[in-house]
């Protein structure tokens, strides 16, 4: 992962999922990861998926240093 910014949102939270996609278009060094089956509290609703996304992102950032 070569991004400097991770944007996450639950797919069921259509407002914030759309905002994440919009922000990613405006910030070239970003990546969006939408969490299927989760709403506004994706980190609580799908903690396993959220943690894996964050872990993979951080490992990618760490690997660049």
Walkthrough of the structure:
The chain has 65 residues and is of the alpha+beta class. Helices cover 54% and strands 18% of the residues. The chain contains 3 helices and 2 strands, in the order E-H-E-H-H. It has a two-stranded parallel sheet with strand order 1-2. Strand 1, helix 1 (14-26) and strand 2 form a beta-alpha-beta unit.
What's the alpha carbon Rg, rounded to whole Å?
Answer: 12 Å
Helix-strand makeup class: alpha+beta
How widely separated are the two ends?
Answer: 12 Å
| Biggest pleated-sheet summary | 2 strands, parallel
* Percent of residues in β-strands: 15-25%
The total count of helices amounts to 3
Instruction: Give the ordered list of helices and strands.
Output: EHEHH
Instruction: List low-pLDDT spans.
Output: none
Q: What's the helical proportion of residues?
A: 40-55%
Please state how the strands of the largest beta sheet are arranged side by side. Answer: 1-2
> What would the principal axes of the Cα set say about the shape?
flat
User: What integer is the average pLDDT?
Assistant: 93
DSSP strand tally: 2
Brief description of this entry?
The chain has 65 residues and is α+β, with helices and mostly antiparallel strands. The protein has three helices and two strands. The two termini are 12 Å apart.
Question: What attributes does this structure have?
Answer:
single chain, 65 residues, alpha+beta, two-stranded parallel sheet, 3 helices, 2 strands, 18% strand, flat
List the helices and strands and how they pair.
Elements (H helix, E strand, L loop, with lengths): L4 E6 L3 H13 L3 E6 L6 H4 L1 H18 L1
Parallel strand pairs: 1-2
């Amino acid at each position: 992962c070569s991004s400097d910014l991770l944007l996450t949102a639950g797919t069921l939270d259509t407002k914030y999922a759309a905002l994440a996609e919009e922000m990613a278009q405006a910030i070239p060094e970003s990546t969006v990861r939408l969490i299927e089956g989760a709403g506004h509290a994706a980190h609580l609703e799908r903690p396993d998926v959220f943690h894996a996304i964050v872990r993979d992102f951080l490992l990618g950032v760490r690997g660049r240093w």
